[in-house]
Write a structure and sequence with these properties.
Length: 237
């Protein structure tokens, strides 16, 4: 969970104001409020989606080892749903990501990329400089609320997921699990964009001021390196 403390809020608000006044709207090396207007390439969504997918699977593989049978059944369903999102055929993955893969990196299936882009586009309508100045330390809460209001994203996600579950028996329990997966997956993607906005703002401010900068430690990089080898914590299925 992201907590935007008052210190971070004041720090970022000051930086955004500086850029608005002193750089005539030039932020992040491009147009003002770039987070809301730029179009990221597919590789961003393979990285964001892959990192979130890995994180969700990792926690479930770990929990399923020591949990009651009722919980184990639910986790098994959720793992099956997450594995349906996972891209077994990596031919569409960008070359530089393939190069870093050692056979255990997770990427969303290419059919999920438009969904991830649509979700991120909605998030970026709030997560930008204007949104930060307007909502302040309520930015995270407002962004999550906007995401929850858009039922079309939930429908899009479920439609895509069911296309990859031809041999999967859908019942009430499975439908509920699908809802849980959607809400967790979308929230994590949302938080990734928020954290990267905060990280990128700090980095750009430091670079412009000639200060030490944490270059290459933003969420895109962290999510890429988060693809860990899960073979040691998986259970036989």
């Amino acid at each position: 969970m992201i907590v935007l403390s008052s210190a971070v809020y004041n720090y970022l608000l000051k930086q955004v104001s500086i850029y608005q006044k002193g750089l005539t709207g030039q932020l992040f090396g491009g147009e003002f409020s770039k987070a809301a207007t730029c179009s990221d390439g597919d590789d961003v969504y393979y990285r964001f989606g892959g990192g979130v997918l890995c994180d969700m699977l990792k926690h479930r593989y770990k929990e399923i080892k020591n949990c009651p049978s009722t919980r184990r059944n639910l986790l098994s369903i959720e793992i099956s749903l997450l594995q349906a999102i996972n891209n077994k055929d990596k031919s569409s993955i960008p070359a530089y990501l393939k190069y870093r893969d050692r056979g255990y990196m997770y990427f969303p299936h290419s059919s999920f990329v438009p969904f991830l882009r649509n979700l991120d586009t909605l998030v970026k309508t709030v997560v930008n400089d204007e949104g930060f100045k307007k909502h302040g330390d309520e930015l995270i809460k407002v962004t999550h609320a906007e995401l929850n209001k858009d039922v079309s994203l939930n429908d899009e996600f479920k439609t895509l997921l069911k296309l990859h579950l031809s041999d999967f028996t859908m019942d009430v329990e499975s439908e509920e699990a699908m809802d849980r997966i959607y809400h967790e997956f979308s929230r994590k993607l949302c938080n990734a964009r928020i954290q990267e906005y905060i990280s990128s703002t700090k980095q750009e401010f430091a670079a412009k001021k000639g200060l030490a900068s944490t270059v290459d430690t933003n969420l895109r990089t962290k999510l890429l390196t988060q693809h860990t080898n899960l073979s040691s914590i998986r259970t036989d299925e």
